[in-house]
Fold these 2 entries.
Entry 1:
Amino acid sequence: MSSSHEVEVIDPKTVDWGGNSSPLRISYGKMFMWFFLISDALTFSSLLVAYGFMRHKYSEIWPIPGDVYHHFPFLEGMHLPLMYVGLMTFILIMSSVTMVLAVEAGHRNDKRKVMIWMFWTIIGGAAFVGSQAWEWMNFIVGTEHGATREVIENGQWVTKTIHGANMHYNEYGLPVFANFFFFITGFHGFHVFSGVVINCITYSMAWRGVFERRGHYEWIEKVGLYWHFVDLVWVFVFTFFYLL
Amino acid sequence: MEFDDNYPQYELMSHHTEEEGKKKRRRLWNIFWIMLAITLIELAIGIMAGQMGLLNEIRMSTVTLKLIFVGFTIVKAGYIVMGFMHLGDENRLMKWLILGPYTTFVVYLIYMTSVGEGVYSSRHKMLIDPIIEMQADELRAGGGHGGHEGEEHHEEKGEQKKEEHH
């Protein structure tokens, strides 16, 4: 073999698919985080498209989100449509900024800054999950006066006054509105919760100096991808669920 | 656990100096301010449209409004994906690999649920749970809940209920 002149020499620096090279020029971990995020994004997309289908099929009787979500903590009795959702959106965008600043600090191997920004990201995520729980509480408890609906009770249809919403009935309109609310914001909220847990693990890793020993902060980039994805989904939920 | 993924053509971490970092941070904060401004505009328009009862109608102004919302959202998504997630800094092949398949599937999904045999065709009626249809009929018969009449409606009912209690 060594005597042959016909052997083609492949220089990995010039030929992308010749082996021993990385055509995408991205690390294994980051690439598969992207692939995971695509599959997750498709799940969220189908939920939102299904929501859009129902929302426009029953357009004339669909509840106006501003009439349903108008509570604000410490300002009871005031009608502030969507204000709290706006604040939640602000909190999540803010925590996304602190996350990307942690990534940027990681690029400079600045352990102290990474820890500071990770801390604020965790605080923002926790505040968001708490706010979401509070929204759920208000939606489930409902208004004082409620609405009169026919509901199934012990296998019988009965007419009674209901308050709030659950998977079976909904004071504000079609029960399927409540089902979508619980599914979409619940699925998203679970993602945020997982993100907060992962952020806490990342914080402890940074604190223990794991990344310094490795010589790079690539882990932060992967966690950052996930966290920004959570923010990205919320941007879509905010528009399609609360505004349209 | 350490993985041996030291391929020759990328570094595990793109390092940069303090000065470059300053520039990058300024850019990130700019993205934040743009996104905040868009969100506030969206919120203001959304609240006004909801109070005016514009959202549950099918007419030109409502459709335009909704398209504006979708446009704003796609701009924000672009800033997050390209700026915060650094997809803008990856190579071109990677960008296509991420955005191509996703866009294809979602456009197809939206097409299948909305165009042609769409929301208002009679065929879809069969696909929808009859219980939802029944609940919708009940709501329609009860005068519906949408629009601005909601508030006064609630208050009247509330007063009635209080009287019953006392």
Note: DSSP finds six helices and no strands in chain B.
Entry 2:
Amino acid sequence: MGGCGMNQDGMSVIVRTVTRFIYGLILVFGFYVIMHGHLTPGGGFQGGAVVASAFALLLVALGTAGVKGHLNKHLLQSLEEVGALAFLGLAFAGIGTAFFYNLLANTGGGFFGVGVPAGPNAGVLNAGGLVPLMNWAVGLKVMTGIACIVIVMLVGARKEGTE
Amino acid sequence: MRKALLLVCFLFVTAFLLLAATSTRPFGTPNEAAMDDYFIANAQGEIAVNNVVTAVVFDYRGFDTLGEATVLFTAVISVLALFRKRREDEQWGGAA
Amino acid sequence: MNVGNFPFVIAALLVVFGLYALLFKRNLIKMVIGVSLVETGVNLFLVMLGYRSDGAAPIYTYANAGERMVLPTPQALTLTSIVIGLATTALLLSFAVFVHGHYGTLDVRKIKELRG
């Protein structure tokens, strides 16, 4: 089991250098896909998967010992629960009218309340009501959930294999 | 004997799937599109987003997204519970 | 250009390959790959159901004026299906790790006897 690369040291120097350079770029791209989910193809689930792939790259390149300083498993678990509860709370925000009622849409220019002109246009970021907030909640949930699964399976598989 | 029976069943299922795939409607002609035409026409007015798929996922069909978030949460909690350290096995075995 | 039913045959072929991997392979990881192939074929079939001839993506940002759009609802429900497939695959692989830790092998013909 020593030659598969999934050990304490990670992979070679070239891989580790490139990972340190490209990790921030993947994170920025993932947050861009989550933020612009109501304008371009993408959204919470897709952007969360992109950011989770950045975390998986960090885990594969640095090894389980090198990642202990970068990713905290208990913080990721708490953030996942926060994301799930935030999505549920946003669904209950418009309970005065209906469940999942969009409270902030078309309210005239406040927090995500600008109206959108009909037909093809260039995209208004400040629009959408509760939809961008739901994108962030779901994106946080997906990225931290998949990162938790990958970390736990990698650390647990090594222990199970050597018992 | 068992391999031959397995092969016959697999070929039967393959033939059934290919026959079903060739007897559907031609590619590009959906049957009933009235609900989706309403979504495409009214998503910018009611929800103020440009992406009609996001409007369907988070607003018109938000209940399905709530169920999916629950499934994802359950899967993550189950994997975390499976890989827990078993330090309390001696306590349970001694008490029972 | 009339393609008839050819894209649906491709989705059915993906399901057939997944079923082959699930039935005729003995390694647990290869069977998990077969399950994943079946789910991929079904998701592809769901997305193909909502296509309209000469249609564009249902997004109004920088779209051409007066164009037909494809149906958005099958795409939204395929998103749910992909996430559920991820949850299933994660749990299947966790069970494969535990089987390997308990029996020492991943061959399904050798893990039939119960062992304490």
Note: Chain B touches chain A through 27 residues (CB under 8 Å).
